[in-house]
What does this fold into?
Amino acid sequence: MLIAGNWKMNGGQQALGEVRQLTGLITSKGAEILICPPATLVTQMAQAVAGTGISVGGQDCHPEASGAHTGDIAPELLKDAGAQSVILGHSERRADHGESDSLVQAKTRAAWRAGLRAIVCVGETAQQRSAGLTIAVVTGQLSGSLPGWSGQAALDQVLVIAYEPVWAIGTGLVPSNEDIIAVHAAIRTHLLQAFGPAGKTVKILYGGSVKPDNAQTILHLPEVNGALVGGASLKAADFARIINSV
Ligand code: PEP
It folds into this structure.
């Protein structure tokens, strides 16, 4: 199980204090824990969690390793700062910055070039769900966003998928258990078709309004291998309760 916190554009010195508290609140040994703060905090966060088993990730990266890209961050720079993973194709980036599947694919290749694990996000909008397009949208995003893998490392060390229905992010709404099960099963089938048996090893996270009160149920559904947590990852007590649901 992987429990990943996405701090988005939140956090500061006070939030770093929450992380220091977090380690004292974790009782479950079954979860790998990842925190993805804003890029400015990656180095301090990596220092704050050193020796705890918690790892640090970025929230996005540029496909290039360096160059004239004002305001962007290369995966190599994230890696230098202490990140081990990077979230890619989050729906807020797909919506706010018009990120296409092919750009997400280029970023995934770039993350791999830099030695980062890519957490590739997919998910349907409310309109797409109403139109019965959920599985088609999600598998289409996977087809367009995932490069082939021929590196030395095991696939599960370099790739994680996060299923995040857009309408569930930050809204308090969550799909039914049956709907989560159906989409995760379709993602698994896609991974097996794309990568062969190694596709079985890739973790599939659910994300979208995961809270202390619903984590236990969601995390025990078939093919749910963890959670990507936004708002509830900012408070140590809430994030610890989610982690302790594993
Ligand atoms: C997210 O932004 O990845 C997310 C899942 O947010 P929240 O948990 O706040 O819905």
User: Anything to note?
Assistant: The radius of gyration is 17 Å. Residues 6, 164, 169-170, 207-210, 228-232 surround phosphoenolpyruvate (CB under 6 Å). DSSP finds eleven helices and eight strands in the chain.
